[in-house]
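Dear colleague,

Following up on yesterday's call, I've attached the two folding results inline so they're easy to grep. Please treat them as preliminary; we haven't cross-checked anything against experimental data yet. The first protein's sequence and structure tokens come first.
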Amino acid sequence: MPGGYTGVDIFFVISGFLITSHILYEINYKKDFSFKRFYLRRIKRILPALLFMTLMVIAAGYFILTSFYFQSLGEQAFSTTLSYSNIYFYLTAGYFDLDASLKPLLHTWSLGVEEQFYLVWPAIIVSISFFIKKTRNVLAAFLLILALSFLLNYFFRDDLSAIFYLMPFRIFEFSVGAIIAVLLLKNPSRNIDNSNIFINLISLFALLLIVSPMFYLNDRSVFPYYNALPTVIGSSILIYYRNSIISHSLSFRPLVFIGLISYSLYLYHWPVIVLTKFQYSELSNIYYYIIVISASFIISALSYHLIEKPFRYSINIYISLSFALLFVGTLIVSFAVKEKMILSFFQDMELVEKSIKEVAIERHAELSQGGCNLQSAKDDKHCNWGAENQILFFGNSHNIDGYNIFDSFIGNNYRYNLIYAPDTYDCEYKHNPDGSVNTKIRECTYAASKLSSERFISNIDVLVVSFFEVKTRGSSYMPIIQEMRRKNPDINIIVMGGFIGLRPNNCSELINKYGDYDACNSEKYVTYWGGDEEKWLLRKDFSKHNYLYIDRISLLCGENKELKDCKTRSEDELFFYDGDHFSLRGSHYIGKLIADRYKEQLNNMGIHH
């Protein structure tokens, strides 16, 4: 389901409820709360099964993954073992990035949030209980924490990865569970009649609140923030009215069994999905689903009986020693994989020895430093403001591709000044109602001021726009482009369109996996094929101006646009360093094609070669 990730939020509400209930009960009724006992319970409940799963995934990854993804698995495993995987994934990849689907331990980000929550929450509850005695004031304290966390979502709503992955932005979900815990502890003997029509109707409504976001949310939704509210509210209602018919229906024996093994099922389902997809990508959907679901349940049941229960309920010295060895062993093995001390089984059989991405980034950096970079243009000796033609490059991470393509056939001509605007991904430009452009990123403020300047824009002859999925990822920056057109009605606009998205998001890894330089030329790996970008742009009135749309797919793959016909390499050097970004060789190749096919249109825009 497109919004299936909301299941985590149900978990956070339940966790906030359970942990708060246990701690408050021990403080207020048993009068013997112990931090040591609390953390010992949490360690026994979570870490043994987690560590064992991590080792099993590393072992499977050794025989399944290519070297690039195996080393990445080591980084994931190391962060998971030390409980900071959510921070690691925040720093390295968005949850919905193409390559995220090939991270076997991606799901542990939520456990990282949970474990960090455990570090701070007991101290918060103990402090509240010590200083505040009245129930209403305790509720007010939790409401304040909830409000502060929700406000953080508001203030950082533009950083989608931060609010998704990091613990402070999720505290409001735990706080809702905590509030329900306080209300129920205040009246523990409360009994709801499950024949009460109102209670059953509101519980049914709560279930709809939980389920519906799974269908209408997607990978571009701001989350959690306000989009998490239906799930959070629905979950809290079902917890509070736990004697309703809906709640009793959730006590159906097969569902209880799933609940019993749910932690192991959580641990193993995603690695099974990722490794099965990587190893057997040619499987039809029905066989893939059967294998994944069956394997997940079988492995989880075994994990529950052989790992979870013994470590959770036994306290003998052998169990403690086994846990210590398990922790140290997982840490050492994951570190060794991360640092390439343990290499993938396929290492010696790989055709591409050095990551194409590493090569491409090195070369991109060298080339971009030789051009007019708007980020440092104030003092940049490479900027030729007296040149006859000023060409501005604007876009997201694909902006460097557009720059390299044009640099390949006009970069050495003194008549042109190629101006590279730092990409929108790094700078997060915002269009203001007064037509100006601003950014929160200090290093991008000079570039934003130039993009806001009517004098600067009026001197631009050609604007080259390069976005991956311009219709979606570039749409929020259309107001800035429209403003440039308003400030300079004569500006020529070239849109670099047509992209190929691949999973795995690294063409060289497909080559290494199959031992075939043409492995990327397979329909089963394509996730994006340019779409109807050109029609969408025409609806944006681009046709009324000096405008050229360049479809790179037709250039690489022919007018019929069949992937088997695509030109993706020159001998052993690839044109892409991942699923869609061009290597330097690819930029030069496509630049030659553009210079030949669009010669007349480019001449009309003042671009001669």
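Below is the second protein, in the same order (sequence, then structure):
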Amino acid sequence: MSPLLPAQWESWIRPGSRVFVGGGSACPRALMRSMCASASRLRGIELVHGLIAGECPWLAPGLSDTFTVNLLFSEAGGPAGDIDRTPCFASEVPGLFLEGFLPLDVAVVQVSPPDAHGYCSLGTGVDLASSACRAARTVIAQVNPLLPRTHGASFIHRDIIHACIEATESLPEFESADNDAASTTIGKYVAHLIPDAATLHIGFGSIIDAILAALGGHKDLGIHTEILTDGFLPLLESGVINNRAKTLHAGKSVAAACIGSKRIYDFVNDNPHVEFHPTEYVNSPSVISRNDRMASINSADSVDLSGQVTAEGAGRGFIGSIGGHADFYRGTSMSKGGVPIIALRSVTRDGKRSRISPALPPGSGVATSRGHVHYIVTEYGVATLRGRSIRERALELIQVAHPDFRDDLLQDAVENGWIPSYQRAAPRPVGDLGEIEVRRLELKQEPFILRPLHASDMRRLQEFFYSHTHETIQMRYGYAVSRMTRERAYDLVNVNQSRDLALGIFEVQGPRQIIHAVGRYYLDADGRGAEVAFVVRETRRRFGMGSVLMDALIAVARNRGLRFIWGRVRRDNLPMLALFKRFGGQPFASPETAVTEVDVRIPLDDAERGEASSSGDAPAFRSARQRRTAKRKR
């Protein structure tokens, strides 16, 4: 390992050479500044690198005659300038070096000082640097005592380094961005999909930090990720991430690179519980799939209504690249219990463009095909696409699009024949179920979720209906119904949730959801009360589903200012009568019919209760029933 003098650059880098530059936070900046200072003596140099954290002095004006850049992968906000891009899966980039598709003359990297055995560490930038050092005929290194010495497959021997400089430099630091409301909500929806004991791959950016922040209540998580960031630290320090349940590299956090603040650099320094491995290993789909319960979360630029995802930019411009997006999505899809997720805001930052569109703009590159996509998450919920038809996919994605764009998306889908013409209204958010419109339940030690019915639940509702016995249909509808058409099912799932309400309790089997109970209310004309109705699958009765639905309906009704809910129940439907009575229902049996009408007063707070008492709200409550009774007589 010989000292490199500035005058020697032209002896190491011949005209027309291809030079690899170590990336991320481990970019050898002192070396690159020295190389740029010698640019007048170099000719026709192609610089090849991936994501660079911070400045890129070789892109400065006046150096384009000496240096051209071939970017192998980057994130949004990567280096700007006159650069080439080579589309490639991150896992296959090392093969471009080692198999001679992009033969390297020189590799310029940053390393830690050698240990007693002569081994230097590639520190926080093992990703592509490891294969580049093996493929290049010449390796030039910046030896930096402040570069963290990392464990795993991060070591190269001093004997393969041909020339070096010693330069002590702090690594560039990047603080996490503050999470906005949309990112925070996306994080909570994503956290809802990730099981305990999952192994995490999470990308880079504010949405990603919000997702990590939402995982504080999970248990026994692990890490197998491309880039380790500060967002992981609270989970590592609290023990939420302990890697105990991992089926590959148990007890170890695995990454290819690290970018963040001094806190994360100090954490990985000489930490035997964190291993860094080359990109061809970390990003290999076959390796990723060996992690059971792999959960991979990637961001994206746009999604079309069939589920195609682009991460490189909309149209012919590029803001990112393929990178590890497809590697981790495919590997996670093959993992036992894997959960591959695309998370993105519903609109661009300026609010002018919907990120969910009828079709991707011409020239857009598809990072994840419609056949691979399982889940798309925005601040408006989760679209489950695996195993869904084009009609169901379009409806799922419209459901999570920004409300300002849903009507246009629906119209386009109808005009293209993707959605039947009877789909007349775009779905609207409920807005009264808390921060996110899905809630986990455990009933008789079985897991379920509670959420609003969506237009894409049409087929699920048909299956639910055809599971009923004749007796259930008679009890629920009051008359025999033998058929649930698609149009009728559509009417039942596509209610105006901002006025009326339709909730379901679902069993979740991976991306499959099965309806076990439905509760709904329809607002009265005077806006003071609402008629409610329930139906529960026979095999899930006595699970308390009716009580859960009643409690949720009452909570929304109270939030919307309703004073009571009411229902018509057959006199022989004793379980349903008991449900109403459990919530304080007051039955009123008409001698003219076999139906009992039951009213449930909405509980009021102390201030409202005093107002109700002084204003005679109880007579108004009774008069509502009298008006309904009079209307039926007319």
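For the second protein, one point worth flagging: The chain has three domains: 2-166, 181-415, 440-633.

Best wishes,
A.L.
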